[in-house]
Amino acid sequence: MRSATWKAFAGLASIAAATAALRGSQALWQQQRGSEPPVNPADPKTSWGEAVAWTAVTGVLVGLARLFARRGAAAVWEKLEGELPPDLQEAV
């Protein structure tokens, strides 16, 4: 049960962080480029430069956001439960 609770807690934190990071990426792209980001970087109508740039920006920001969210969730879990989350106990 604790494992399922942790997975749900960490998953929700990751989803929230990834959503915020994607929205931030879109705003940053619009501010810096003056245009909307590509809807689908794989679309042949999107230039290679834009496709690669958008993929790199969103990949890095969403990945970092998920990392920060999971580490933050683990810190909260440890504070509340007195021990690391179930999947992190195995890694130690």
Brief summary:
The chain has 92 residues and is mainly alpha-helical. The chain has helices at residues 2-33, 48-81, 86-89.
Mean pLDDT metric: 93
Query: Which structural class do the helices and strands define?
Result: mainly alpha
The amount of beta strand, in percent, is under 5%
Number of helices: 3
Helix content: over 70%
Distance between the termini: 21 Å
Spans of at least 5 consecutive residues with low confidence: none
The global form is elongated
What is the radius of gyration?
17 Å
Q: Tell me how many strands there are.
A: 0
Q: What is the chain-wise order of helices and strands?
A: HHH
- Sheet bearing the most strands, described? none
Structural description of this entry:
This protein is mainly alpha-helical. The chain has a domain at 1-12 and 49-92. 76% of the residues lie in helices and 0% in strands. It is built from three helices and no strands. Helix 1 runs antiparallel to helix 2 (48-81). The longest helix is centred in the C-terminal third of the chain and has 34 residues, at 48-81.
